[in-house]
Amino acid sequence: MFNCFLVFNIMKVIAVLEYTLSAGGGFSQALNAILQMQRVCVGKFDFEVFTTQPENSSYLHQLDINHVIFSYSLIDKLLAKLSINSFWQAIQSRIRIIGAFEKKIGITWL
User: Fold this and answer.
1) Domain span at 49
2) What are the φ and ψ backbone dihedral angles of 107, each rounded to 5 degrees?
3) Which of 13, 84, 71 is nearest to 92 (CA)?
4) Are residues 89 and 41 part of one domain?
5) Is residue 110 a part of any domain in this protein?
6) CB neighbours of residue 7 within 10 Å
7) CA 74 – CA 77 distance, rounded (Å)
8) pTM of the model
9) Of 19, 84, 82, nearest in space to 50 by CA
10) Which residues are 50's β-sheet partners?
11) What is the C-alpha to C-alpha distance for residues 34 and 107, in angstroms, rounded to an integer?
12) Residue 53 and residue 77 in one domain
């Protein structure tokens, strides 16, 4: 007897909120985009919100948005600066270096 199991990986959609309320319109625009994406993703995609600002937690909680508070590590900041260079991008993809942020959101190499 042959059993066939289909495994579907649901695509994960990530929103990173780096603005604070003091950003004014930028913060409101980001929240509106997050709320829209949350509605679009229901039943189709896995949706997560990450924020670098702990003070955003109360606003996200009031809007019933599940979120994770994180901070970029020194390695994340260094990789972001280096990634501007196409030569570094080629090296990074070959040696498969990923930072703590990418690990946290679940990015893996194929």
Assistant:
1) 10-70
2) -75, 130
3) 84
4) no
5) yes
6) 4
7) 5
8) 0.70
9) 19
10) 16, 68
11) 20
12) no
pLDDT category at 1 given cuts 50, 70, 90 is very low
Is the separation of the CB atoms in 63 and 39 below 8 Å?
no
Model confidence pLDDT, tens digit, residues 30-57: 889 999 999 999 888 888 898 888 998 9
Cβ burial of 65 (10 Å; 0-12, 13-18, 19+) is: buried
- Residue 18 belongs to what H/E stretch? none
Which pairs count as long-range contacts for 67-72, CB under 8 Å and 24+ apart, including other chains? 67/17, 68/104, 70/101, 70/104, 72/99, 72/100, 72/101
The token pair that represents 66 in the structure block: 């599940």
Tell whether 39 and 56 lie within a shared domain. Answer: yes
- pLDDT confidence band for 26 (50 / 70 / 90): confident
